[in-house]
Design a protein that fits this description.
The structure holds 2 protein chains of 2 kinds. By secondary structure, chain A is of the alpha/beta class. Chain A has 5 helices and 5 strands. Helices cover 43% and strands 18% of the residues of chain A. Classes of the chains: A alpha/beta, B alpha/beta. Chains A and B meet through helix 1 and helix 3 of A and helix 4 and helix 17 of B.
Chain lengths: 132, 559
């Protein structure tokens, strides 16, 4: 079976990367191919990297409160680049009241604080299987 | 314990107890865990007795409060004389909004200010920079120029209140702005007191708001040391921070180790720049986390004090007692807050705050219950401040220094943390020091490993988080969260445009050119930065000049 490919990305200026790194490592331990962008990526850089790396998913992490601005920009850029088949999920400090807006804009799921990495792993596997 | 006979007596008693009552209980069933551990992965024994610190010498290892090695506290009377400074980290939206929050906190009995800046400010971008989109005013206050800083401290007398500013890469610029505000208030520089975080190494390690490469960053830092020792004598020129190292996932022992390794690098850089140890060492301050394991945290603070005193005395040959004192601010552990059942966080914060006080902190920030979800509301902040006031005025723990000193368990852990931290420091020394260890990714890797192992422990139910992997309930989404409007950015941009239209732009260009020339040379940059700030050059313009000359740091990514 082909490996699931994922880009874990930190959009914006936020420096909190503990969650992003832990999730990246858990996904890798679950057998996926994981690329981590590092800090301070613009939506443009993230989408470019995702296309270049031919990933199936992008995981966005933001704890600075800029998610409503940054996450939809990634989705829109993917559409512009005809890469909307790349599914985007997110995590971080994201109030529940923002989740409907993010989902409407095309984010498939938001994993809030306290989410077990197993939940994230099985969500991704399921979505991948449904797709292919 | 000096007496051989005494030791024999304890050994016998312990053996008898282990083989007798303990064995009997264990024969009926095992203990809750196969192995009890602390965050630093020390095995917790089933009993601590005077045997565990048989090697300790009271006068050498503990001493009296206010005397070397300061294990029991940096001041002789500790909180009997003066309580710790209650300093809530705050800042959001724009300067006038934050000014209101500061005045509210001061009215509620807070005794010092602590400024949180938004990310663009922390990374040296103005609010109109493309990378600032969506970030303006979100995690702190947006400051673009001296004009904002004047509003931020409007009506707050800088000779009466001490101010801590969490600012690192552009610390010199924000300090310059503070100095200019003080001058405008007619307060002389020897009267202002406060702290800038100014700790770039932990930005590379854990916090992420770096701008310039290490060498140039270290120059800016030593420039500040030098400038302040002559001009702003009551200013803490750096707050060497373990807080974020811990938040990133380190253990207690790693927090002490990596913080002190960074501190050693700063001291060495300052010595290399020609400063005298006893001229700047007393203005170094520290910043630690207070985390979950109550006794281990108290031990950590004590161990850090003892180890620093020894390093300053033996390694750096400091002469003055003040140079050997590790004075520190504490914040309760943000990463321990849960989004689930957020009111439970009040209890976590209480325990962590208590540990900080029992550990002898000089100032304290208590987190608010809703901070896993958003910036705190005014009501949540008030509860957090009241927590400190209850500890201070009702619990009695502030009435004698180091009230838990002499606890067998606490003393054993204090020694273990010191020992483990020293092992790490030796290893980092072998690599060529903290800067080198960071460039190699060693420190980041150690922390990432700890963070991952902790999370796996949570998922295996070895680490219990109440309300998350145990005792969870179905909850309605939390209400009344603070939300920062995107309008803040629009207004900030308008303000920048207005400022640029009305300031003396020729003076700005001149000041920025002078700064550029100085940055290319070897002069102390502080006077040049102050001159630029004074004519209302923006933070982004000043950092832009320095970016051009110094370049930007690009880290290697470590998973």
């Amino acid at each position: 079976m082909e490996k699931i490919r994922i880009l874990i990305a930190k959009p914006g200026l936020d420096g909190h990367d503990r969650g992003a790194k832990v999730v990246a490592r858990a996904l890798r331990d679950a057998g996926m191919e994981v690329i981590y962008t590092g800090l301070r990526q613009t939506p443009e850089q993230i989408v470019e990297a995702a296309i270049q790396e031919d990933v199936d998913f992008i995981g966005l992490s933001c704890l600075s409160g800029a998610h409503n601005n940054l996450f939809p920009r990634v989705i829109n850029l993917l559409k512009e680049q005809n890469a909307a088949d790349i599914k985007v999920f997110g995590g971080g400090v994201i109030p529940q009241s923002d989740i409907p807006f993010l989902k409407e804009s095309g984010i498939v799921e938001i994993f809030g604080p306290g989410t077990s990495t197993e939940v994230t792993v099985s969500f991704i596997k399921q979505l991948y299987d449904e797709r292919s | 314990m000096s007496n051989e006979e005494n030791r024999k007596q304890f050994t016998e008693a312990k053996n008898k107890w282990t083989e007798g009552p303990v064995a009997k209980i264990l024969s009926r069933g095992p203990e809750r865990k196969e192995r009890f551990t602390t965050s630093s992965d020390f095995t917790v024994e089933n009993i601590y007795t005077p045997l565990e610190f048989a090697e300790n010498d009271y006068f050498q290892d503990l001493g009296m409060p206010g005397t070397y090695p300061f294990t029991r506290g940096v001041y002789p009377t500790m909180y009997r004389g003066r309580l710790w400074t209650m300093r809530q980290y705050a800042g959001m939206a724009d300067a006038s909004e934050s000014n209101k929050r500061y005045k509210y906190l001061l009215e509620q009995g807070q005794t010092g200010l602590s400024v949180a800046f938004d990310l663009p400010t922390q990374i040296g971008y103005d609010s109109d920079h493309v990378l600032s989109d969506g970030e303006v005013g979100k995690v702190g206050v947006a400051i673009d120029s001296l004009a904002d800083m004047e509003i931020l401290f409007d009506g707050i007398p800088l000779d009466k209140v001490s101010t801590s500013m969490t600012i690192n890469a552009p610390a010199s610029v924000l300090l310059a702005m503070y100095i200019c505000v003080a001058e405008k208030q007619g307060v002389s520089l020897d009267k202002i007191a406060g702290t800038i975080q100014n700790d770039i190494l932990k930005e590379y390690i854990a916090r992420g708001t770096y701008i310039f490469p290490p060498e140039q960053s270290m120059r800016l830092i030593t420039n500040i040391f030098e400038f302040c020792s002559a001009q702003v004598p009551r200013w803490n020129t750096i707050s060497i921070s373990g807080y974020h190292i811990r938040e990133a996932g380190s253990s207690a022992a790693q927090e002490v180790a990596f913080t002190l390794a960074d501190a050693i690098a700063y001291v060495e850089a300052a010595l290399e720049a020609g400063l005298e140890i006893d001229k700047f060492a007393a203005r170094l301050s520290f910043f630690f986390n207070s985390h979950l394991n109550f006794i281990e945290e108290i031990a950590k603070f004590r161990a850090a004090r003892r180890l620093w005193a020894k390093l300053m005395k033996d390694r750096f040959k400091a002469q003055k007692s003040k140079s050997m004192m590790l004075r520190f601010h504490t914040q309760t552990g943000g990463s321990t807050l849960t989004a689930q059942q957020p009111d439970n966080n009040i209890i976590r914060v209480t325990l962590q705050a208590l540990a900080a006080v029992l550990g002898g902190t000089q100032s304290l920030h208590t987190n608010s219950r809703d901070e896993a979800l958003a910036l705190p509301t005014e009501e949540s902040v008030r509860i957090a401040l009241r927590t400190q006031q209850i500890i201070a005025h009702e619990s009695g723990v502030a009435d004698t220094p180091d009230p838990l000193g002499g606890s067998y368990y606490l003393e054993a852990l204090t020694s273990q943390i010191e020992e483990k931290a020293l092992e790490y420091i030796d290893k980092i020394d072998e690599m060529g020091g903290a800067v080198k260890a960071i460039e190699l990714g060693y420190i980041q890797q150690e922390i990432a490993d700890s963070a991952y192992n902790y999370q796996m422990g949570v998922e295996a139910d070895e680490n219990i988080i109440v309300g998350v992997n145990r005792f969870a309930v179905k909850e309605a989404p939390p209400e009344n969260l603070l939300k920062i409007s995107d309008q803040v950015q629009v207004l900030q941009i308008e303000r920048i445009n207005e400022l640029k239209a009305k300031r003396d732009n020729r003076a700005v260009t001149e000041a920025l050119n002078d700064l550029k020339t100085a940055a290319e040379g070897t002069d102390n940059l502080m006077p040049y930065i102050i001159s630029a700030v004074k004519v209302y050059a923006t933070l982004g313009e000043i950092c832009g000049v320095l970016r051009d000359v110094f370049g930007e740091y690009r880290p290697a990514e470590i998973l």
